[in-house]
Amino acid sequence: MFRSYLIRACASSLLLASGVALSATSTLADQSILDGSGRDVKVSDTSRILSVGGDVTEILYALRADDKIIAIDSTSQFPGDALQKKTDVGYLRALSAEGVLSTNPSVIIASSDAGPPPVIEVLKSSSVPYVVVPDDKTPEGVANKIRFIAKVVGLEAAGEALAKDVERDFALLAEQRAKITKPKRALFVLSVQSGKATIGGAGTGADAMIQLAGAVNAGASVPGYKPLTDESGVELAPDAILTMQHGGGGMPGDRIKTVPSLAGSPAMKNGEIIEMNGLYLLGFGPRCARAARELMAALYPELVQKKASAAE
């Protein structure tokens, strides 16, 4: 910390003595950002970015701003080498104010899911600009998230180009979705403990992704992520069950098979259990439309077959 301060002090003195204005490609003119929490945040230096949230980090890498990132959270797993090259400040919902600020960031760009709340309040009241990224799990929301982050780091042109690419991906997805004549009922299972499943209900990222893929969320009658009761499990009768891949240990699909209330569902009878990478599936970053297309292909393989036949 002392060495950093000394270097800055010496550099500033030399520049002032020579009458040269302090400038750098990573130093912006002071800009006021209305962030996702409704706060007006002043940002002037993006030379040392602390990125919190897998989607935030993925967007920064896609904008080629990764050289400015000095630290990330543990959910920032794409690109694959991010956690190997950047300082890891821990899980985004269990941050430590001391751990975050010890990386000496010039700005913190964070997902709205970051926590715990008391720590976030400390970070917001610190001298480091803390920018909350808007969270809107729609095609428009994803594109605008890209534009927002690009504005924060002064890369609006690159952000607009990336957002346009993503919008085109979503347009192609919508064309495919329009071909679905009989939507399936899909249920997202977040976890299983002691034979009880926690599912993704209305308003969750899983709910949004299921709809993007042209299916109906079988758990939409439940708000948020909630444990599934034995009675409701039977009533939901999903055609397909969606879950996240996990590294190591038993496969999620095997654990789902231990849930009694889902045993008689069409999904279980037909072996329709779909596993996808968690960040890819629920990150709502630049790859969101691609992830939705892959989910759609798993739910409706006949659409892929028809497309292949038409191309022959």
TrEMBL record:
Parts forming coiled coils: none
UniProt cross-references to Gene3D superfamilies, sorted A to Z: Nitrogenase molybdenum iron protein domain (3.40.50.1980)
Domain Fe/B12 periplasmic-binding residues, every copy: 48-303
PROSITE patterns noted in UniProt: FE_B12_PBP
Matching InterPro entries: ABC_Transporter_SBP, ABC_transptr_periplasmic_BD
Pfam families with a match to the protein in the record: Peripla_BP_2 (PF01497)
Ribonucleoprotein among keywords: no
Protein name: Periplasmic hemin-binding protein
Upper classification of the organism: Bacteria, Pseudomonadati, Pseudomonadota, Alphaproteobacteria, Hyphomicrobiales
